Amino acid sequence: MSDLLEQPKAETKPLSGAGKSYGIPMSVLAEITHRCPLQCPYCSNPVELDRANAELTTDEWKRVISEMADMGVLQIHFSGGEPTARRDLAELIRHATEVGLYSNLITSAVLLTRDRLAELSDAGLSHVQISFQGSEAQLADRVGGYRGGHGKKLEAARWTRELGLPLTINAVMHRQNLHQLPEIIEMAVALDAERLEVANVQYYGWALKNRAALMPTEEQVDWTTQIVEEARERLHGILAIDYVIPDYYALQPKKCMGGWGQQFFNISPSGKVLPCHAAESITGLQFDSIRDHSLAWIWENSPALNLYRGTDWMPEPCRSCALKEEDFGGCRCQAFALTGNASATDPACSFSPFHEKIFRAAKTEAEGSDQFIYRNFKGGTPEANRS
Ligand code: FES
């Protein structure tokens, strides 16, 4: 899921009648559950997960999916947690199809069977994105904390193509698996994927706890960039590859989410409307729920969505920066995680007073321990990590 969020591509349409400078996103991320059988150390879900009994019901999701279509949204990404953990997923996809939405399934794939995938396809599923933790089982299963997971993913990827569904491979990359990138690229080609997302870990929420175990070295980042450039040229017309330099080694911040509350929103399992998947890591913000308001009302009026919209909220050096409408000051979640102030310039920016400090920290942490703190309720060492 993380890479979808790292590199949003949604275009926007004007919000009819509202006269606002922001638009309606063409796509929305629906996190229908936080339940997940994997235990990834870079999990992008909030540190406090929504419990199963707090999740929106089938009828509530169907209502909100209809509201998305009424607003003009075109695509829905069913995500989590692991969205296939919800038994009503086919019913939700069928409803999305009926109201005219293009539906994408963002999945770890370890719970899928061929019959279940065929059921989702029959319901109108348009696209499948499967996450991989490496190019081979030993490392991939250790990272995901799920024995046998890599083999299941390969199987599900083959079923996806057999059923005629387009496939994207999402490879979340960090110091402990970057050396496998050439094999991951070949794996994506062999699986007949049309797109590979080389997704660098983003360090907020749970991933922040594992930063020292995940941070790549500067040499790895340079090498990765070369590998991607060579593969893009060689595989032109065969495999599209998405990749951006990881924040801690960048000079300019990314235009996170296309700007806060401007091109994207996601809905949490319990119905909160968020400007990004990590926004709940910013303490003190209150997010409105679709249980209390319509989606259209929240998109226009939510104080949390309006807080960092546009450029008026910006402090210096963003306020007088010529690039302020290009990057919108970078990522608010990262600014909060690294400075304690969500209004600060993202330290990924070379004009941030914190920039040098985070670059030095990255170099130091890249020499840290490889031990993970897994995303499970014990924070312990799962079977798959023991060797
Ligand atoms: Fe960048 Fe939240 S993840 S603004």
Automatic annotation (TrEMBL):
Record's InterPro entries? 4Fe4S-binding_SPASM_dom, Aldolase_TIM, Elp3/MiaA/NifB-like_rSAM, MoaA_NifB_PqqE_Fe-S-bd_CS, PQQ_synth_PqqE_bac, PqqE-like, Radical_SAM_PqqE_MftC-like, rSAM
Q: What is this protein called?
A: PqqA peptide cyclase
Could you list this entry's UniProt keywords, alphabetically sorted: 4Fe-4S, Iron, Iron-sulfur, Metal-binding, Oxidoreductase, PQQ biosynthesis, S-adenosyl-L-methionine
Pathway noted in the entry: Cofactor biosynthesis; pyrroloquinoline quinone biosynthesis
Determine if Ubl conjugation is one of this entry's keywords: no
Q: Which CDD domains match?
A: Radical_SAM (cd01335), SPASM_PqqE (cd21119)
Q: Which family is annotated?
A: Belongs to the radical SAM superfamily. PqqE family.
Q: Which SMART domains does the record match to this protein? A: Elp3 (SM00729)
Q: What does this protein do?
A: Catalyzes the cross-linking of a glutamate residue and a tyrosine residue in the PqqA protein as part of the biosynthesis of pyrroloquinoline quinone (PQQ).
Q: What is its EC number?
A: 1.21.98.4
The GO biological-process annotations, alphabetized, read as:
molybdopterin cofactor biosynthetic process; pyrroloquinoline quinone biosynthetic process
NCBIfam families linked to this entry: PQQ_syn_pqqE (TIGR02109), rSAM_more_4Fe4S (TIGR04085)
Subunit info here reads:
Interacts with PqqD. The interaction is necessary for activity of PqqE.
What the record notes about the co-factor is: Binds 1 [4Fe-4S] cluster. The cluster is coordinated with 3 cysteines and an exchangeable S-adenosyl-L-methionine.
Cofactors, names only: [4Fe-4S] cluster
* Source domain of life: Bacteria
Write down the top EC class of this protein: oxidoreductase
Q: Which residues bind [4Fe-4S] cluster?
A: 36, 40, 43
Q: So what does this thing catalyse?
A: [PQQ precursor protein] + S-adenosyl-L-methionine = E-Y cross-linked-[PQQ precursor protein] + 5'-deoxyadenosine + L-methionine + H(+)
The species this protein belongs to is: Nitratireductor aestuarii
